[in-house]
Amino acid sequence: MNKTGVLSPVLLGLLSFICVSCVELTSAPFSLAPTATPPRTTAIALKIVGDKPVLTRGAHGQWDSVDVLNPSVIRRGEKLYNYYSGYDGSIWRTGLAISSDGIAWEKHEANPILSPTPEDWDVSYISANGSAIEWKEKVLYFYQGVDKAGRT
Q1: How far apart are CA 8 and CA 94, in angstroms?
Q2: Are 120 and 3 in contact (CB under 8 A)?
Q3: How confident is the model over 91-106, as pLDDT tens digits?
Q4: pLDDT confidence of 17, banded at 50, 70, 90?
Q5: Cα dist. 87→72, 82, 93, 135, 152 in Å?
Q6: What is the DSSP string of the chain?
Q7: I want to staple 132 with a disulfide (CB 3.0 to 4.6 A). Which of 32, 62, 72, 138 is the partner?
């Protein structure tokens, strides 16, 4: 569970992966039943929209001054929410940037939105490198941290 008591996306995925219907093992090779409809395909088109990064490092001394990476973008309504990792040279944190078009991003005024703290399970070095999903009208963010025993 995360800090708000909600199941993490990884745990939800694991729970959904657990056997829904069991199959009897036989010596016959396994194969999937044919589908009634062919799989849906989507064409992907890439377009260069500029030659500059859409999200830049923070100013010297800020929480994201050394590096910004690992974006996890979700759409909520008309806005895009980018949960990204920022590094100041010693600690990784998570920030939020919001955009209407995916090109112009505004960093959230309360950044970083997630930092390691001695009071929580993620006590040092990292609270970042995550993945965001929307589930039941809430954002769930699964991220990497280091606990008191030094486990990542």
Answers
A1: 16
A2: yes
A3: 999 999 999 999 999 9
A4: very low
A5: 16, 16, 6, 28, 17
A6: --TTSPPPHHHHHHHHHS-SS-----SSPP-PPPPSSPPP----------SS-SS-PPPTTSTTSSEEEEEEEEEETTEEEEEEEEE-SS-EEEEEEEESSSSSEEE-TT--SB---TTSS--SSBEEEEEEEEETTEEEEEEEE--TT---
A7: 72
* β-pair type (67-76, 79-87): antiparallel
Nearest to 82 by CA among 48, 62, 61, 56: 56
Radius of gyration of the chain (CA): 20
